[in-house]
Amino acid sequence: MVAPTLTSDHPGLEVLAEVAKVLAAGRAVEEGLAGVVGVLRRGLALPRCRLWLRSPDGSRFIPIADPDDETQLPGFTSAVADRVTEGPHSESVPGGTLLRLPLVHEDEALGCFEVIIPQGRFERMSHDVLVVVAQMLAPVLAADELSQDLASEVALRTRELEAQRNFAARIIDSLPVGLYAIDRGYRIRAWNRKREAGTQGVSREDALGREVFEVLDRQPRELLKLEFDRVFATGEIQTVEMDSQTTGEARHYRITKIPMRLDDEDISHVITIGEDVTAWRQAQQRLAQSEKLAAVGQLAAGVMHEINNPLATILACSEALSLRTAELPEQERGAQEEYLRIIDTEVQRCRRIVDGLLDFSRPKQSAHKAAADINAIIEQTLFLLKHHERFKWLMIERQLEKDLPQFQADAERLVQCFMALMLNAMDAMNSRGVLTVRTRLNPNRRDEILAEFIDTGTGIRQEDLPKIFEPFFTTKPQGRGTGLGLSVAYGIVEEHRGRIEVESQVGVGTNFKVFLPVG
Questions:
Q1: In this structure, are residues 354 and 310 in contact, taking their beta carbons and an 8 Å threshold?
Q2: Greater confidence, 327 or 123?
Q3: Which pLDDT does position 157 carry in this prediction?
């Protein structure tokens, strides 16, 4: 549209000035447009003045209401919209002229005016003013549309970034390791959910922004600071392993400190990852124990006949000599018989050692396994042990859970295993004390049966615990044991795809836990 020329005495200048004032007030767009409509209706005495704006998708026009206008206008038809976008359009209506003026910016129709100019009421003046107002409004609407597009784009990008941050946070929270990050001021900037559930149980809200030394106050400040400073200075990953008794049981942790760079140059943060590797450590120990037992088995297979043969010869010679002692004088006969008894005792001891070694070298007879009841095996073992002289002095406490599922087992081998564990408990208590035998489902894994043998004996020193299943290791006095009982028990449990764990405290007692799989 070509702008009309308005002289300084044009009666519509006051209306244009008021319109400019409304637009300059900086109100919300729809509120400002409604104000412009009101100015035009009052200033030009128009019975109807309605502003239509094109919807964001361009499919329709939306009316901007004048609060003083109670008339109802129909929506634009597609034919009317096409005519409006082509240029000003007017037609005669009862009582005056219906004028539609497009609001165009850079050849794009953003909306239009729809007004009725009464006949004989400054038709030309009203027309000229409306054309100028349309040209004033078009860039305002275009700028608003652009700002809305920019705002929508910013909002979209913000939502995307927030979604990515939430996704990354979920990943960190889902890790089965404790993770936190500090900046160069030693202030905590990240603290995942695993850290909240850790031994110190500090919530994320209480940890973020605080100095790490205030939160992890159980660790020496200088030592912890030195570890962080080493990573900041060298840029190298630092890993340490440590044992902890904080939870009441021995746990093993691997702590890794990782340098982090925000600008790909200086190290800005240190990420610390704490991983509970107790299960892995125990698995490594079981593997090492299995390898030791396998080595002993190979050794036994190679030398058992070589040892048995000389033992048989020694025993035969001993028996032959015993027959000749009858011919000796009584004084000499007594001394000789004592020596022969010592020889016989030591030969029998050697045979027991060889028999123990043979338990490692014998092939495992999986065909012997059948459905078994753990409580029945325990009762059978106790029945056999009740005839043992020293076992009679113990107090036996049964805590056998009923209706436990059956499992595949070689009952005879398990009796041997449980007997070794109970005899070991008897020796630890010097035949005085309480032996508690307990069976139940593993509370942490419902696919395992747990059998526990708890004594009130002297306990085992912490430094000896890793060695108690090694062949020939024993803390008993010389001559009281071969050091093979627990090793044999360990091997039998492994045959059943189970495992043994030990908890012990010196002066309190020991608990041997046997885990056996169901099914």
A1: no
A2: 327
A3: 74
Which span out of 46-50, 274-278, 420-424, 484-488 was modeled with the highest average pLDDT?
420-424
Number of other CB atoms surrounding residue 463 within 10 Å = 7
| Domains in the chain, number | 4
Average pLDDT over all residues of the chain: 78
Structural domain including 297 reads 281-361
* Calpha distance 234→43 (Å, rounded): 78
Alpha carbons 36 and 136: distance in angstroms, whole number:
11
Q: Is 76 exposed, middle or buried (0-12, 13-18, 19+ CB in 10 A)?
A: buried
Q: Write the pLDDT tens digit of every residue in 406-451.
A: 999 988 889 889 988 998 888 888 767 899 999 999 998 889 999 9
- Count Cβ atoms below 10 Å from residue 333 Cβ, excluding itself: 14
Report the sign of the C-alpha dihedral through residues 213, 214, 217, 221, in that order. positive
Q: Which of 276, 306, 324 is the last residue of a domain?
A: 276
Q: Is residue 80 part of a domain?
A: yes
pLDDT at residue 221, rounded to an integer: 86
Of all residues in the chain, what percent are helix, strand and coil, respectively (each to 5)?
A: 50, 25, 30
Q: Pick from 145, 156, 74: which is nearest to 103 by CA?
A: 145
Q: What is the DSSP letter of 391?
A: G
Averaged pLDDT for residues 335-360: 74
- Shared-domain flag, residues 58 and 195: no
Q: How far apart are CA 503 and CA 498, in angstroms?
A: 17
List CB contacts of 219: < 8 A, sequence separation 6 or more: none
Same domain, 434 and 391: yes
